[in-house]
Q: What sequence folds into this?
């Protein structure tokens, strides 16, 4: 772009306070009139957010649950008014906060398309023009004239999504609704989003999927307890998000340690140690090394048939790999005592990134005895341009066909 | 990344002014802006009204006819119970028409207020997820109420034709003014209560009770002559006539109830009815404006209160 892109959203020093009332009825309000202050709890969902978004960018809002990202999205959308500060914006906006929010179960698909399109800001003439496209994209076909209450949930969501992306917005706000429908439909949605990006539309979306953020965003904003802790490119954003995850993890570790001594029944994961035969100076694992996962656990009293499993996950919680001793036909002792079970994962094919290791102890009937979801973590360092969780020594060739 | 469409879009966006999200709080400018927003959404308003009506009668085989059954039943009950058995009909000529005029006006009023009060809560899904000028929801209830009113009015006119007492008299404008007054006053209350109910859920039930009481505070099943006999010239009469719904219904009766307006026998009208109606309309318009401002102030927190 030659000239700097114009601003489309400008948030200045916006804060949002939620007041949680403990009483809702007239009677309670009147009775507690004098002590009203005691019966409300203030909760700041956003703290002094200042943010400018240029037109044509795709911005991802990430953060763990309760970090205020959905609130920020609603503030930008005008659905919630900030307690202080201002939000300015221009251009046509469409918000996909919940698919089919305006659908009425008793009306037919066709009537709902018109209604929902109108709610999203389309005139009747425009809806007429897009109607066939909408129906075709949603793959609803002849059911368009049946009442929506008879639709399957997949059909419902597909129709709603289809309406939403046909409203020609300049600014699209999306709240975790991209994962709808079956896989081919999801791919279609992603294609549509990418087409939106090429058309210079601005997209602000909330996501929990690091992959999606990496794939789509030019810019990532990380929120933590209502504060902006990072604003920059996607890679840096994901890194900042992981740090905030790890910080959260460390906090739970210390609380877990205090109750460790009181084990009288069952079994408990005591620790998980990770080593690799190939590491760099910083202690990051390198590709091709043999990773060893040693799970130390203590048994107080258990029935025979104990199973220990491990899982490797991304910080966003997506499973990368998992295995347990039952699957490997390894019988474990059930006498009280402390044991180490070591898994060796030779020739690591994990791609660059941060990983968490989970350790779980199951009984023979697969009920969980103890679970340590974030028992340990490690980092893989790699010189590669690829994305994803597995690595290949990829080569590429090109041949001329004519 | 970019193609020519994107550059065009950026250029177009650059020309648009940045608009502050949310409502202007100014007493006058804010109201004008809200009005503009609602006007720009009038198409949606129409669709919401149609949705209400369609959904209400979707799976019933009699459909719209049901919206007539209730007032007709009420008419029969009051005609026989109050008119014939209690003997009010002897003092009131054309008692059936008289009651039906009053009932039609009253039903319009309670539907606007009652459905308006519930409108924000019953549309909670939309309020929480999409930004629209929220006044649209109480206004859609007004639209739905007007539809049932139109159906009843049609029956009323047909009845006057059948009884060959079609109200084509100089008093007909009274009826029009009365209807407008009910709509404006009802809308003002509907918008105000819709906003307040989000914060105080009890209002929904309280309003129902109060409306049931107020039914007897207007001359619907009894004529104004009874009131006049009992409390004429006292401050109670002034209080009675300060109710906009009462003067609106009196106006409708004066315009549409031919037997009464021709004053064949003992029918009494309050003094200065036209003046009272204009004053009530003026007050209702101010009330409408004030309630819209209160609503605008309240609506900022709707999404989190629902």
A:
């Amino acid at each position: 772009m030659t000239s700097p892109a114009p601003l489309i959203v400008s948030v200045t020093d916006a804060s949002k306070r939620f007041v949680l009332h403990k009483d809702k009825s007239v009677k309670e309000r009147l009775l507690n009139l004098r002590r009203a202050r005691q019966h409300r709890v203030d909760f700041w969902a956003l703290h002094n957010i200042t943010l400018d978004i240029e037109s044509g960018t795709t911005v991802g809002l990430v953060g763990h649950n309760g970090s205020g990202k959905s609130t920020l999205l609603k503030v930008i959308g005008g659905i919630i008014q900030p307690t202080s500060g201002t939000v300015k914006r221009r251009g046509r906006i469409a918000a996909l906060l919940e698919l089919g929010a305006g659908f009425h179960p008793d009306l037919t698909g066709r009537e709902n398309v018109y209604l929902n399109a109108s709610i999203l800001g389309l005139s009747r003439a425009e809806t007429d023009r897009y109607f066939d496209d909408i129906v075709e994209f949603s793959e609803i076909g002849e059911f368009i004239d049946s009442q929506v209450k008879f639709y399957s949930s997949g059909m419902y969501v597909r129709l709603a999504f289809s309406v939403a992306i046909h409203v020609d917005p300049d600014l699209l706000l999306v709240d975790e609704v991209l994962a709808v429908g079956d896989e081919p439909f999801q791919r279609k949605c992603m294609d549509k989003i990418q087409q939106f990006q090429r058309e210079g539309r601005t997209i602000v979306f909330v996501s929990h999927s690091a992959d999606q953020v990496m794939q789509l965003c030019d810019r990532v904003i990380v929120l933590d307890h209502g504060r902006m802790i990072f604003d920059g490119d996607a890679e840096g954003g994901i890194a900042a998000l992981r740090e905030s995850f790890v910080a959260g993890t460390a906090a739970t570790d210390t609380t877990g340690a205090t109750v460790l001594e009181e084990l009288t029944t069952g079994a408990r994961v005591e620790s998980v140690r990770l080593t690799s035969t190939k590491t760099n100076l910083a202690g990051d694992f390198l590709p091709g090394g043999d990773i060893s996962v040693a799970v130390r656990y203590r048994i107080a009293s258990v029935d025979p048939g104990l199973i220990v499993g491990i899982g490797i996950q991304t910080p966003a919680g997506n499973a990368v790999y998992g295995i347990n001793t039952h699957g490997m036909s390894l019988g474990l002792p059930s006498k009280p005592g402390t044991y180490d079970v070591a898994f060796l994962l030779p020739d690591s094919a994990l791609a660059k990134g941060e990983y968490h290791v989970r350790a779980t102890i199951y009984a023979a009937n697969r009920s969980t005895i103890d679970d340590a979801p974030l028992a340990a973590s490690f980092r893989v360092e790699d010189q590669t341009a690829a994305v994803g969780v597995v690595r290949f020594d990829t080569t590429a060739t090109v041949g001329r066909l004519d | 990344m970019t193609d020519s469409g994107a550059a065009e879009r950026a250029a177009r966006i650059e020309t648009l002014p940045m608009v502050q999200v949310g409502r202007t709080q100014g007493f006058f400018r804010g109201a004008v802006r809200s009005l503009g927003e609602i006007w720009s959404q009038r198409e949606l308003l129409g669709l919401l009204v149609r949705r209400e009506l369609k959904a209400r009668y979707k799976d019933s085989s009699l459909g719209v006819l049901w919206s007539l059954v209730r007032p007709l039943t009420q008419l029969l009950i009051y005609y026989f119970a109050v008119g014939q058995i209690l003997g009010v009909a002897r003092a009131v000529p054309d008692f059936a028409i008289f009651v039906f005029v009053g009932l039609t006006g009253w039903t319009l009023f309670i539907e606007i207020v009652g459905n308006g009060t519930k409108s924000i809560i019953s549309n909670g899904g939309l309020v929480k997820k999409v930004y629209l000028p929220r006044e649209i929801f109480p206004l859609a209830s007004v639209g739905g109420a007007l539809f049932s009113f139109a159906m009843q009015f049609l029956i009323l006119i047909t009845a006057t034709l059948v009884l060959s007492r079609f109200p084509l008299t100089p008093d007909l404008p009274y009826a029009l003014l009365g209807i407008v007054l009910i709509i404006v006053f009802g809308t003002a209350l509907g918008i105000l209560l819709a906003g307040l109910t989000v914060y105080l859920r009890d209002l929904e039930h309280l309003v129902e009770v109060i409306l049931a009481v107020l039914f007897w505070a207007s001359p619907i099943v009894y004529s104004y002559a009874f009131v006049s006999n009992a409390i004429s010239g006292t401050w109670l009469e002034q209080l009675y006539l300060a109710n906009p719904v009462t003067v609106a219904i009196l106006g409708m009766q004066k315009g549409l109830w031919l037997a009464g307006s021709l004053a064949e026998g003992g029918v009494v009208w309050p003094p200065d009815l036209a003046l009272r109606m204009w004053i009530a309309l003026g007050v209702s318009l101010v009330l409408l404006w004030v309630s819209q401002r209160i609503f605008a102030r309240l609506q900022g927190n709707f999404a989190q209160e629902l």
Remarks:
- The two ends of chain B are 41 Å apart (CA to CA).
- The longest helix of chain B spans residues 95-122.
- Chain B touches chain A at residues 1-3, 5-10, 13-14, 16-23, 43-44, 47-48, 51, 54-55, 58-59, 125-126, 128-132, 200-203, 206, 300-301, 303-304 (CB under 8 Å).
